Amino acid sequence: MDPLPWREAWHAALYAAGQGFYVTRGGPAAHFTTAAHGPTGAALARALLRLPEHPVRVVVDLGAGRGELATHLVEVMDPTEPRARRTPDTTRVVAVDVVDRPDGLDDRVDWVRSPGGSVLPPELTGLRDALVIAHEWLDVVPCTVAEVDTDGVLREVLVDPTTGLESLGPRLRDADRRWAEAHWPTSTPGDRLEIGLARDEAWADLVSRVEDGTLIAVDYGHTATERPSGGTLTAYASGRLTTPVPDGSCDVTAHVAMDTLDADEVLNQREALQALGLTGTTPPHTVATTDPLAYLAALERASIEARLLARDGFGGFRWAVKRVRGHDVT
After folding, report:
1. 80-115 as b/e, with b when 16 or more CB fall inside 10 Å?
2. Which of 22-36, 273-287, 308-322 reaches the highest mean pLDDT?
3. Environment class of residue 168 by beta-carbon count within 10 Å: exposed (0-12), middle (13-18) or buried (19+)?
4. What are the tens digits of pLDDT across the range 144-200?
5. Distance (Å, whole) CA 287 – CA 13
6. Least trusted range by pLDDT, from 32-36, 99-103, 122-126
7. Within 10 A of 293 (CB to CB), how many other CB atoms are there?
8. Are the beta carbons of 125 and 209 closer than 8 angstroms?
9. CATH class given for the domain over 14-141+195-278+311-324
10. Which 8-state DSSP code applies to residue 328?
11. Where are the alpha helices (DSSP H) in the chain?
12. Which of 42, 178, 198, 229 sits at a 20 to 30 Å CA gap from 66?
């Protein structure tokens, strides 16, 4: 098979009908743990719902996997109210991903199927009083992979979709080259980078669909002062890091240039969650003798929060936050 640009092979590997990784290999939870899963997901949901500085009528979970975070969100907002008794004033939770509605998903969660990658579903538009959460979405929006050749010229990296064997292709197209010059300049032979233009455009499309609300992208990422010279393209399968081969057998991903997104602020998850009230602080031991059950509950909560705040773990995520007021969409 002839080599393809990484961006094309990557998209097919994850989203192609009948063979893409996310379509045929189960949800992300089958291959790796994210902060949205399990007890950390519940704590994250509580924190995220404190973020908006406005009333929220719809919460969108973009890149929802199999609805894990969306389920936590509805449970936090109303642990008892069944869907059948929802009123027009009830906050809707909408989960968006590339598969049909998962069996057994909480019926309070609305489900929208997405084409995948940077392409958003047409139903996702005109959002008002919205909180939009893109949790580990942009890192699987395929983008151009580039490498500096021996003459110091940035070239697109090609890949054999069946073997993962790479080769250097043509010079970068103008738009990608301009992005690299502005945000990730390098002429050192062998340096690799992921051109973030596709992610910037996907995020801008998402922002344009919100008439009033708060958007947050949560991902592993980097900023201008810490771009990795070797790039970040990697893959996961069955809970382990593996060599990225775009054949549909693994989850291909790359960190996000968070500071190039249209956002009001970019900060570490640790800082963001601490500002929203998470501390990870162990309760006083005296509580163990006066109220053992309360002590155990507080100890469990502290342990969960500590995982979300860990500098070398989930706390190392970056948040890009965008606030849209009225029709001021930029």
Report:
1. eeeeeeeeeeebbbbbbbbbebbeebbebbbbbebe
2. 308-322
3. middle
4. 999 999 999 999 999 999 999 999 999 999 999 999 999 999 999 999 999 999 999
5. 52
6. 32-36
7. 8
8. yes
9. alpha beta
10. B
11. 6-15, 21-24, 38-48, 68-77, 174-183, 197-208, 269-275, 286-290, 292-309
12. 198
Amino acid at 313: G
pLDDT recorded at residue 87: 44
List the structure tokens of 80. 């008892």
CA 256 – CA 318 distance, rounded (Å) = 9
Which residues share a beta bridge with 323? 214
What Å distances lie between residue 203 and 44, 110, 130, 142, 260, CA to CA? 22, 22, 15, 13, 10
- In three-state secondary structure terms, 233 is coil
Tokens 């609805």 locate to 67
Q: Where are the beta strands (DSSP E) in the chain?
A: 4-5, 58-62, 92-97, 109-113, 130-135, 145-148, 154-159, 166-171, 192-194, 213-219, 221-222, 234-237, 240-242, 251-253, 256-257, 265-268, 318-324
- The first and second tokens of residue 257, run together, are 């240039």
Cα angle value 213/219/223 (rounded, 5°) = 100
* HSE (side-chain half, CA atoms, 13 Å) at 224: 9
For residues 177 and 171, is the Cβ–Cβ distance under 8 A? yes
